[in-house]
Amino acid sequence: MPELPEVQHVVDTLRPHVTGVRIRAVRLHRNDIVEPMGFDLSKALTDRSIQNVSRRAKRIVFSLDDGQSFYIHLGMSGRLIASEPNATVAKHTHLMIEIDRPVVSQIRFVDPRSFGGIFWTNDDTELGPEPLTISSSILARQLAGTKRIVKSALLDQKLIAGLGNIYVDESLFDARIHPERISSELSREEVGRLCRSIKSVLKRAINSGGSSLRDYVDANGERGGFQKLHRVYGRAGEKCVKCRSAITSKVLGGRTTAFCPRCQMK
DNA sequence: GTCCATGTTCTTTA
DNA sequence: CTAAAGAACATGGA
Questions:
Q1: Closest residue to B6 by CA to C1' distance?
Q2: Closest Cα to residue A263, out of A230, A239, A227?
Q3: Which of A58, A76, A113, A148 has its CB surrounded by the most CB atoms within 10 Å?
Q4: Is A58 an active-site residue?
């Protein structure tokens, strides 16, 4: 579910529920989703208040009143939902944070596939620059340093942090760049186009509330609408919206990749 | 039963 | 060292 636009939308919908709110209790139903393993989340969070919620790459970062911070990563199927305390507890609810609010008084982390988790650290030095604010020259520098195909490079969070399979494919289509082009061989003009495309695709996705394929909903349980606007992702065999050629699908770097063979020439 | 999935990380291989 | 390929993690839907 969660690439940058989905995570941003979760953060935006979560913020009004938790900003300035005190944590009353923490119920952890699975301790292997907390890193470091064995960390006492309850001790660290109880009676602290949440100063702010923000996004870094695909991470949902919580800042506390004692200056500490931690993040939740949604993995592939994670949801973070504001709930009423008496709402039915969904299967695979791994964490419930009780907050000091009269109505919506729980934040629940539900994650069937358990690829997500809670990470007690604020170290983001492993992450590359943010896609929404990266400059064309920085992107060019990042891409110049690798001979991998551009599809794989853009998925590398150390190179640029926040894109995933959907938005890499959509951005490459928008920029008319073939996913198998060698990163370091892109022209300055192509990188400029790619930089603009990444931002416009992500902004449009955020404005649509993200892409809901199966699991994804925001903190209020609402689905996004950007899946209806996908131009290549999930459209293999269908006609290209620009040239009517058939959209091609191919596994690249272990990930299914959709592109238009005519609009995105090698 | 099979295949596939919006993510990340590790191992093997070249 | 770089990078590609494959597997692993766990679950559910088609």
A1: A1
A2: A239
A3: A58
A4: yes
Spatial neighbors of A254 by CB under 8 A, at least 6 apart, are none
> pTM value?
0.97
- For A136-259, CATH number out of 1.10.8.50, 1.20.1250.20, 3.30.300.30, 3.50.50.60 equals 1.10.8.50
Residue A266 known to be catalytic: no
Q: Is nucleic acid strand B under 7 Å from A58's C-beta?
A: yes
Residue among A231, A239, A210 at smallest CA distance from A222: A210
Superfamily covering domain A4-119: MutM-like, N-terminal (3.20.190.10)
Helix and strand counts by DSSP (H, E) for chain A: 6, 11
For residue range A1-12, what is the model confidence (pLDDT) as tens digits?
Answer: 699 999 999 999
**Which listed residue (A58, A108, A181, A193) is catalytic?**
A58
Give the nucleotide with minimal C1' distance to the Cα of A156: B8
